[in-house]
Queue: 2 jobs
Job 1
Amino acid sequence: MEIIKTRKTYDAVIIGSGAGSGMSANILAENGLNVAIIEAGPFFDPAQNQYRSQLRPAWESPRRGASTPLRNFGDWDAAYGGWNIEGEPYTKEEGTDFWWFRSRMLGGRTNHWGRISLRFGPLDFKRNDIDGLGDNWPIGYDEIKPFYDRVDKIIGVFGSKEGIYNEPDGFFLPPPKPRLHEMYYIKGARKAGIPVIPSRLSILTKRLNSDRGVCFYCRQCNRACQIYADFSSGSCLIFPAQKGTGRVDLFVNAMARKVITNKEGKATGVSYINKENGTEQVINGKVIVMGASACSTARILLNSKSTQHPNGLGNSSGVMGRYLHDSTGADRMALIPDLMNRKTYNEDGVGGLHVYTPWWLNDAKLDFPRGYHFEIWGGLGHPSYGTGFNVSDLNSYIGGTVGGYGDKLRDDMKKFYGSTIGISMRGESVPQYDNYCSIDPNKVDQWGIPVLKFNYRWTEYEYKQAKHAQDMMEEVLTSAGGIMIGDKPGEDRGYGLTAPGQIIHEVGTTRMGDDPKRSVTNKWSQLHDCENVFIVDAGTFVSQADKNPTWTILALSMRASEYVVDQLKKQNI
Amino acid sequence: MNRRDSIKTMLLGALGSSMIINGCAPDGSNRRRLQDVYDFSSYGRTPEEKARDQKIFNDNFFTDHEFETVAVLCDLILPSNASAGSASDAFVPEFIDFAVKEWPNQQEGFREGIAWLDTYSSAKNGKDFIFAKHEDQITILDDIAYPDKATKETEAGVEFFNQIRNFTLTGYYTTQMGWDDLGYVGNRPNIWDGVPEDVLKEHGMEYEAEWLAKCIDQSKRDITAEWDEDGNLLT
């Protein structure tokens, strides 16, 4: 294969364009560095009509918004790709399970994510001190707080000051009022004795700056916002950095193969496949910033073997790929008879929940470590593919007749529209040395690059946590006046615990730590083994809390990127 | 074929005269398709997605007889009433024609279900389902439309009816006509400022003052956010 080399040497080459990469590009370019971003997928900008799915009604899609192999979360979802990408397989060790969601496009998964933007709290960085499991982070909340504060102000997040110790407050925009199903949830939560507070989402309910619009309440943040009223890496970090500094070059459809190192073991650049013509190219940089996602970054580094780095770049410890962990998840749904035959009105609201329940039992003695939070869904949603499927079956919960046709069916549709509410539990798992991804020696992707093999099993901790959550979900939903739909999953169904990877919060593959024998990066997200390579995705997480990872990715990336600037100035790297 | 002609065709079909549809080529190549009803040329697709759509558009699954049976069934499941059009007014048959190509795992159910229905109808009325009298079609529907009443003889029919009922409902309620029937009025820019007062009252709910105090004052949404150093919003 012909290898083309670009003549220019960038100050920094960033692999990937999601949350961590976007923040890094923004900070580095603002500080005068010339930056290249290598993204494996195509360009994407939701403001341009050719990419837009926001506000398209169901019938503009021939499958009415259903999923396809090319867009697993449906035609209107902004994430290209999904659990499987043709030509880019991954494998699993027999008897283990892992689901890997990849989105190949500018901005990556930030284009469709739930925008739930929770800070990790003081306890979340030191869980080992509390339960003796896993490891503490090498940093604490106080060290990252100033970066969270700045992320709040630069990107915008709504929420409310609540003064809950492990759910730190920030610089919030005001939250939207609860919707009707959320009022029922509040009622149920109060009755069950658990807290409920306004949600915290990175959606602009109020003007933040002149570049971005203010939310117009279509509930479609997963489609990516054409007026940039929600956070996506492209629209809020990369485009502004390009326009503001002129120092960010974008290489799309560029699939990173490996980081190149010299005789001294220092990184000099990145080789990548130009997907448009199949050639392999090299781009040179003084600093390499890895933001390809926890598993993709591990894959690229493990594939970057050299004489100086025989186990892969940054893997002298042998822990790269290990401690891979995802959030736990479980869901439950109920029919609220009081919500049947309800009056309809525009109840779209923001994309996602207006209220949520943070973990409330940090001080309790339980038979499992660590906690979870509840996310709430329901309401008069956008009818798309799947609407009406088995709608008449709901009659069985209220003594009505199942089945039929004609006006009886139309009546069923109206009777049950917006009458159900659901809870999703999302919790913290305990990172395990034995849960990992590694290079599969027997398989390559369509570009000839060795692929990842996953080996992941939940432990008793996660099953017990799910069991607890199942009990609580039932209590809250019945307290809200609900009739539970479907059977409660017991031990035989693993208490409804989602498969590893399915919550798409995979983290921990290149964890940070003070001990180079037990971690991949130092507390500045810098490889112990190679001083000019940094990791700005969730690979560096020592543990992931029950919180969604994005806000912490952004804060850590900002911190690491300013450290890069500082170290370059001091000529330390 | 325009929409009015198509409705006429459906009516003829429902009345037992299938002359017009049977005049089409047996492979369905002259039949109106979903892509003839809606413009799918530009709905934010990648080149790979466009190519995949095109392949499905060019495919064919239903025979004309099967398609006609689907159309008759759709309109028995959702006939028009005083306030809303029928399934075929909302082009549900064309949607199902697309759906069985998009999801090949649905094909066997439809093909065998339609064959079962014709066998059942022939045994009862000496005719394929679509040629039976309207009241005879309704009698058959009553045998297969209620899962709790399924017998060994009708269970295959009940299963098929569940399938086509699901696709009819989803095909109908994902159109403007279906949205209007359901009362869905979202998918447009607006400013959410809470549940309407009369709805709250009806449900015996009210917003707590303490909670409301935290929420956005929509009259200030366009004023740029500024905070004090403790994170208190000043604007």
Note: The first helix of chain A runs from residue 19 to 30.
Job 2
Amino acid sequence: MTQLPLRAQLASALGRTAATLSRVTGRGDGSVIGGRVGLILEPDLLRKLAADRKLVLVSATNGKTTTTRLITSELQELGEVATNAFGANMPAGHVSALASNKQAPFGVLEVDEKYLPEVLETTQAGVVCLMNLSRDQMDRAGEIWLLAQKWRRALAGKDIHVVANCDDPLVTWGAMTASTVTWVSCGQPWKEDSWCCPECGGPLDRKGDDWACRECHFRRPEPTWFLDDDAVIDPRRQRWVLDLRLPGRANRANAAIALAVAEVFGLPVERALPRLREVTSVAGRYTMVERDGRSLRLLLAKNPAGWLEAFEVSDPSLPIVLSVNAQGPDGRDTSWLWDVDFRILSGRPVYVTGERRLDLALRLDVAGVPFQLCETFDAAVAQQRPGRVDVIANYTAFQQIRAEFGRAV
Amino acid sequence: MPSDSALRIVWIYPDLLSTYGDQGNVLILEQRARKRGIPVETVYVRSADPVPDSGDIYLIGGGEDRPQILAAERLRRDGGLHRAIDRGASMLAVCAGYQIMGTVFGGEEGQPVEGIGLLDIQSSRGPARAVGELAAEVDTGLGGHVLTGFENHMGVTRLGPGVRPLSRTIVGIGNGDGTEGCHAGKIVGTYLHGPALARNPWLADVFLGWATGPLTPIDDAWYDRLRDERLKAVLPR
Ligand SMILES: [Zn+2]
């Protein structure tokens, strides 16, 4: 590693102090505040910290944090890895991540979809992993066709190896300007944002995972990696049963693309896969927590596509607690609730809580799903008999529940 | 084929314009009709398909700039919606869908794009995005309720003499001139997500009443609780 110039060293040291303060005062993971202090002092800090490392940027609407964790776990097979493990996915978080591990030859950075062009430009990362794009909290996330258009411009004309999910038409369109692309077939359960061709606006015809525009040349590229149910098929047509400890289809998709990224770094599946199997929980997601004889499994879902994946993981034989907030990070507009098909919960005991529980209550009422309204999460838990319970919460609702368990999860 | 007795709801271009919970307006009309024993048939019309002109209530939602321009082009070429409105059908147009009902709206670079001319309004791109809760007093001609919802748009809409404002804003931006939305005949346009009918069941009943005549009251407990909470949260005390 090259030595950082003095001003950059000072900036990153001050950033670390602020991060420590934020942690000891209990105001957060410390990963964002440290980075913000650092960035103010040295705008070029991220560029300097990124230089001479092998970097992967990971972006998508859903699964960024988990996939970042999976790729990090794989690359640790090759050496030390700097990463923003707490999901602080804007430049301030990237500064924190890289500053906290200056010796690491590898970096795996989760990047907010909007910030991808900027972070790509600043860090000159050589590998970019792109999984999916779908409607998200639009009062802050912006429009996804526009986002994909910005990805196209940012990737064009640079020496970048992109690993991307070709089953998502918008991701394909956003990724295809890169000089090298490894296409991975990871599936796309949520299709409501890709019935139309991003190239010409014509209708996309779909058959299974395959798709093609009826009116122009735009069609799904041929993948070299496939997610095939519980296994991944590599470019040599070898089938690897994943056998992850993380649950659900979405995580198998994340693992498939992570294995393709590993191969870009020369790490073969036989060495990468055992590393993926070591990951059990990511920032509290999928963990079981215990309270008074009840075992609660915590699932995070931030948008309609995420809720679809969470329902898939959830066990239909169990009661389920749903918690919804509408603070800044959640998106203050709760309209997205109407894009989620809750009818799948019919027949299960459903408990509704969170700051916007009345929005959810009306949504379930219109869907014809019986539910019980609970003032607080504790009240919802108190209603449960001993045994297993699933919990699905959106972002700040999830963090509030985690905080109740002392971030032990 | 739809039977003659059923209420026919037509949702226009969910593949282009349904970015934020717009389906909710469809689901709420269906629920509130069925609760009153009115059978419902809903048609989702994709943008590659013709718009049927035999519907009773038409809905069109919000979306991004490019899909909005595509939707306007297709509706103009198709003509089905115009025939339906001439026949006396009603229409709820939300956000991007509201703008394209006018004679002109702003494209992705702010360029003027020709609308479909069903409402006497002109929209353009405003200086800043209007994002947040909105509350407004509704035109007495439509019952004088309080309108509640969430707006998220960059549009500024000028109302011509052929339409009336839907409401006067108490909180929020709306059209940009102290009014929010507009109506003319049986067409109602609004910037509100929420979705609009989840927050304003009275407006759902305006549409159902136009299509089927006087309505029996139904249990609005969940609607009322949500409305009260939202209005308490945003209205000045
Ligand atoms: Zn096309």
Note: The longest strand of chain B covers residues 121-138.
